[in-house]
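Problem statement: downstream parser choked on a complex file, so we are re-checking the raw output for the magnesium ion run. The parser issue turned out to be on our end (a line-ending mismatch), but while we're here, posting the original submission so the record is complete.
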Amino acid sequence: TTKIITISNQKGGVGKTTTAVNLAHSLTLENKQVLLIDLDPQGQCATKLGMDGQMGAYYFLTTQPASPSEVTFVRQWIRETGRDDLKLIPGNSMTSSAQMILSVQEQPISYIRNLLKTFTRDRFEYIIFDTSPSVGGLQERAIWAADLVIVPTATEFASLDSLSKTISTIQTLRDKKNWHGGLLGILPTFYDNTRESRDSLVDLQGTFQDKVLSPIHRATVLRECWSEGKTIFEYAADSRSAEEYQLLADLVLKY
Amino acid sequence: TTKIITISNQKGGVGKTTTAVNLAHSLTLENKQVLLIDLDPQGQCATKLGMDGQMGAYYFLTTQPASPSEVTFVRQWIRETGRDDLKLIPGNSMTSSAQMILSVQEQPISYIRNLLKTFTRDRFEYIIFDTSPSVGGLQERAIWAADLVIVPTATEFASLDSLSKTISTIQTLRDKKNWHGGLLGILPTFYDNTRESRDSLVDLQGTFQDKVLSPIHRATVLRECWSEGKTIFEYAADSRSAEEYQLLADLVLKY
Ligand SMILES: Nc1ncnc2c1ncn2[C@@H]1O[C@H](COP(=O)(O)OP(=O)(O)OP(=O)(O)O)[C@@H](O)[C@H]1O
Ligand SMILES: Nc1ncnc2c1ncn2[C@@H]1O[C@H](COP(=O)(O)OP(=O)(O)OP(=O)(O)O)[C@@H](O)[C@H]1O
Ligand SMILES: [Mg+2]
Ligand SMILES: [Mg+2]
């Protein structure tokens, strides 16, 4: 069966896309079939993989899999990424129009989960959603669609302040909207040797205990690999960053 | 007359709130009356000033200044910040509900600009909008309301990729929606001595020439001051960061 993973945090710039793409690639290196879907209108999953943004996410979100011809239409937007076993549905700015449409149509919380019927024949072992830094309909439906949610958060005060709001969104979905998935964990990112970073990690562990995953250190290679359109495993396979993201993949494989 | 400034960039974590709050404070240190309005559902302008998020932005966005009693009602949400001449309309997660309401009501592009009539008696010399990392109705209306837009961008490839989308949103507003304001400039942030940062700045200056403002260096004090609820001028008045934000304020004062 397919496991659905959503990467979410309303705070901006905390490493959501970096985590989505590197986790997706790491799982394929363990011979898993993975589909990455970019629900952020910035369309940066494509950029990070050296590809162009496209309206794949728009059509995924606005086409109900009601008949074989609609399923075929959406599946045409699945793109090869040049990495074995890793496919992408790219997004672009049109994703924000799709988001408006869902809001105005007042689609149910299960809307995105139901769209995944399009891929039952594809035998993906993991489907990973990258999301935008925002609140609102699309975020909640993408979390509700997930079996597991990963919340990257930078180890700094500003991000910890926003984290509690993201976590309470997740809790409300469990308590009020009958969501059956769960929080895989909070992934500390940009971890460095400053007092602020160390104090933030201690704070996180105090509040969320075993839900705090092992941190991703701040590393220039994680910034540089974007300009090359490469994942960390292609740009710096022997780096600590590659190891840290592989550790995350190993954890996901245990669920 | 009052100058309206909007801080905008759909990319997350590039220093929008840091810029909005430090610029606002710097202008008051030059004896200007400033109102800061937080249109981001994260409500972090309040956090950065050591205050709590509140529904001020929700009521500002959903109350038309049609009669004196409505004007009085909205003005009640103007909060003292403890800094002379700096007032805040705080936001919280309810701002995203207001955003939904504006979209469903299909309010005109001039909607936010018209709401500013509420403050004509207050004699603010500057009104500054902080915005969320997203695209869509609220962003565009907040830009359209502005006389001047500042676009902070981190000096890294991922942010430069998203910048072109934010800039094209601004250009479309000029060309198609008859906006009379202008881009004050692109503010490079997180500038450090890495190859990536230096190359990014060179790229920026190549593309946007004199619209690239003098950079804000990466500095730990800019992260640390959040946990104290202080602006850079209170936390580290003699720092390079305080000087760099003062330079930005001096530029704004020239317009
Ligand atoms: N651990 C890290 N160390 C150093 N740089 C990092 C790290 N993680 C991510 N980055 C860099 O920080 C920037 C922001 O990361 P990314 O774009 O993945 O965040 P995001 O949460 O997806 O942002 P947005 O909110 O805009 O979607 C990118 O330039 C990325 O390369
Ligand atoms: N020049 C800088 N040097 C170091 N840290 C900085 C700098 N500018 C901002 N920061 C820190 O980076 C983090 C992100 O900044 P900030 O929250 O202002 O960005 P933002 O664009 O408002 O984010 P969001 O997209 O979530 O609204 C904060 O912890 C802030 O303190
Ligand atoms: Mg992203
Ligand atoms: Mg902000």
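For whoever reads this later: DSSP finds twelve helices and seven strands in chain A.
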